[in-house]
Amino acid sequence: MKTVMLTIEKKVTLTIDGKKVTVPEGTTVLEAAKTAGIHIPTLCYLEDINKVGACRICTVEVNNRLQAACILPAEEGMVVKTNTSRVRQLRKHILALILANHDSNCPTCIRNNNCELQTLANELNLREEIFEREYARHVDDMSPSVVRDDSKCINCGRCVSICNEVQTVGVLGFVHRSDRTKVAPVYDKSLAELSCINCGQCIVNCPVGALREKDNTDLVWEALADKSKYVIVQTAPAVRAALGEEFGLPIGTGVTGKMVAALRRLGFDKVFDTNFAADVTIMEEGTELLGRIQSGGVLPLITSCSPGWIKFCEHKYPELIPNLSSCKSPQNMMGALLKSHYAKMNGLDPKDIFVVSVMPCTAKKFEVQREELEVDGIRDVDVSITTRELAQMIKEARIDFLRLEDEHFDEYYGESTGAAVIFGATGGVMEAAIRTVADILTGQEIEEVNYEFVRGMEGVKEARIKINEDITLNVAVVHGGANITALLDKVKNGETDYHFIEVMACPGGCVNGGGQPIVPDKIKMEINVPVERAKALYRADSAVKRRKSHQNPMVKKLYEDFLGEPNSELAHKLLHTTYVNRQ
Amino acid sequence: MKQVHEVHFITELFGKYDGSSLQSYLEAGGFKPLQQLLAGGSEKILKEIDESGLQGRGGAAYPTGRKLRQFLSEKAPRKFVVCNADEGEPGTFKDRELLRRNIYQVIEGMIITAVCTQAGEGIIYVREEYTNIHDHIEQAIESCYQHNYLGKNILGSGFSFELRLFSGAGSYVCGEGFAMCESMEGKSGRPRTKPPYVKQAGFLNLPTLVINTETLSAIVSIIRHGAHEFRKYGTAESPGTKLISVSGKVERPGVYEIPFGLTINEIVNGLAGGMKNGKKGNFVQIGGASGGILPARLWDTKYTYEDFSRAGMSVGSGAIVVADTETKLLDYLKVVQDFFNHESCGKCTPCREGNRQLRIIFDKIAAGTATAEDFYRMEIVLDVMGSTSLCGSGKTEVVPFNTAIKYFPEEFAVFAEFEKRAVI
């Protein structure tokens, strides 16, 4: 019998703006106010991540004393006032102090109209610059993925907490003190020189424009204008689940059809789906897994789709490099196939093909530049842009996104299954792999395809899947650096018996990638963004007939006509890669 | 003016023994208070401290007895007593004298505090700038270990206490309890958010009692002579004696132990030998860089917690910096501001950005370009810093500026003057 522990939660009742509020003990005044429908302004605060009380914009009056609501535990009988003239005045003045140390050249800022500082200045009715401006001018744009602009940084420390606590990458921190205080990579080096994994979680959690992706849209425009180039675009699964947000659609709206239409308007010669390559990945990686299990190879096999995770592994767990799947990520499989099979099929010179990938990810920009990722001197992918950059291009091209009629991906490389589209959520690669591997191992078409236990936002998900009497697959799914570190330490010490682990660098997987639309913390407090975006992917999965990668007719054809078997010599040449010990 | 004399309650043993020899400390009556504790139990000692009315000498003036009892009620397998010898407050050097001339009493104070609060480990956090006395302190700790005043089963009492020295790295903010804990953990000295408090989760997130060097010394003297002897000095609200550090334009700068209740005049013109070279007094700054500015016309103010509080300032660290009329107030404040702009940890907006703006304004004053608008800005900065800073450092930094504005409004007329000139 299961023992159920009942913990009786102690409650406290306090008064906020004249309203009685009862909350569990330990709740902050900020959170308590939220339950009463009162939004206390925040800047440095990041729910569950950055509670440091540094910016002081959440100042409130408590029993006639001024306190920071984000770090103040609610107490019985407390009387909180969040909207007195004194509080409003102080907030304005604090904001004015922050603005004086910030390059407030809003119209040219990447975060114009999506900036928490700008929004606050507006909401708090700050209409004058009280103080003299003085701000740093340094920009670090040497990384292929992440650009840091000190002139915009407000020292809130969100990126520092994300990088250290959530991702356990630890390349950002505070240096110096007083008015010389700044956020900087260790030793004041460029992010490009460090163990930064390019995940971009710092970008999507920055309240202002101090962090942004390296903008590569100019390279795409250039290629589109070049008549000698055959420009192909491919889009990752998670992009379609978030792109709509950039055009005002609710979080979790799938916009595949409009996205395809927009890409055609932009002038791409072909619009293909990275999902096709995701199906190929399952064929290759599934075969690799079975091979390793059957031949006593290195286990657990660990997925290699997430370039942030790959760099993390190369820096921090080089001893696990033999465990990494040799499969390239879907992005690069796609590129390699387009410049070999597709080129041959259409009589194109691979050198004339320019492959653009649209990714929810900033680490993909680093990945496309990796030395290993080319075949016979031809780069797999030429340029990778983020979901945000694509939205930017659509806006710049003055395309009315919301009024576009849905269109379909182009044939062959636009064909995919439900298994591929869920790659974008944590657990998706695992679920897709199980769907195929189970069929192969049992020699049957298993009807059940929903493996709920690998879905959801839990940091580490584990399962023992009994395929038949002889075979039980032990699997784990992990996402976010801190969870990865915790799990891999166990794997390293031989404390686990997994066969297969899916690892995604970003918390929640690609739907919450560093290249996705940036959602202000105020909204993140209300909506679980990765969950909503993932729903769009699972809806897309259940809407299609073919939900297993090996059922993709074009993938079958690709193997019959060109690659031969999964893991064949040609497949290895085009679709597999090697890694580097960066320790 | 009546004759003023120093008293020697806490500093009783200064010069009475060879400060570096445990043997001579014992001969001078050292460690008898500890013996009293080990014989009579800690409750009696805590009661004595309660009755003495001793308040923390680091600046916060929290009742020491209450502080020790609160710490006693924190239960954990490891608890730390940390002697705050960071003494980073400008114009303050009394702890240096306690460490230099009577280190054994500080150590005895730590042992007594540890026994009374059931803490097994101690650290003397000494400011980096006191490098020249680090060896002296470590030798004293070593001697105490050799004679079982420290270590396992002290004097057969069954109580063990491990003590070591930790050198700061020179940051002012590390005098604050949490910043000090961060520093000892090898991190940048930046305050943490409260709650939990240092006493609950300080060094290594374990219960930690941070207590000032002078407070520890006073505890020993109070036990030695009894609370009633201590209370013979001072006033009802400010009982006992206080070590003050007098510096600036006086004939005899130095550390003095005074009974609470002397006037500033008595201190400056009595104890410290009067203004240097017979110059005219202008103002004093009381209690450190974040202390109040008191004009010479108010030097009959008594040196007590209550009188200072009425004047908008506090005893603070016990520093008194004396300025004559050749020192211009705004020049002096610029130096104070430079200090804070160097030492602010930079974590919270009000202190980091406030100091930036104050620097800009004081630079303009120095350049003769400050306007009435700058004065308006200064007032806003002082308001925001004083009311919303994260830690006490930012909150109290405004005191010298606010008291200067209060007592010397005419000095700030320069802003309006510049404005007039600018219009012309």
Itemize the secondary structure elements and their pairings.
The complex is a heterodimer of chains A (583) and B (424).
Chain A: E1 11-16, E2 19-24, H1 29-35, E3 59-62, E4 65-68, E5 79-81, H2 85-100, H3 116-123, E6 139-140, E7 146-149, H4 158-166, E8 172-175, E9 182-185, H5 201-205, E10 211-213, H6 217-225, E11 230-235, H7 256-266, E12 270-273, H8 274-295, E13 301-302, H9 307-316, H10 330-345, E14 353-359, H11 363-368, E15 374-375, E16 378-379, E17 383-386, H12 387-396, H13 418-421, H14 428-442, E18 460-466, E19 472-479, H15 481-492, E20 500-504, H16 521-524, H17 529-543, H18 553-563, H19 569-575
Parallel strand pairs in A: 1-5, 11-12, 11-14, 13-20, 14-17, 19-20
Antiparallel strand pairs in A: 1-2, 3-4, 3-5, 6-7, 7-10, 8-9, 15-16, 18-19
Helix pairs in contact in A: 8-10, 8-14
Chain B: H1 22-27, H2 32-40, H3 42-52, H4 64-72, E1 80-85, H5 94-101, H6 103-117, E2 121-126, H7 131-146, E3 162-167, H8 177-184, H9 198-201, E4 208-212, H10 213-225, H11 227-231, E5 241-248, E6 254-259, H12 264-271, E7 281-286, E8 292-295, H13 305-310, E9 319-324, H14 329-343, H15 349-367, H16 372-388, H17 392-407, H18 413-423
Parallel strand pairs in B: 1-2, 1-4, 2-3, 5-9
Antiparallel strand pairs in B: 5-6, 7-8, 7-9
Helix pairs in contact in B: 2-10, 3-4, 3-6, 5-6, 6-10, 14-15, 14-17, 15-16, 16-17, 16-18
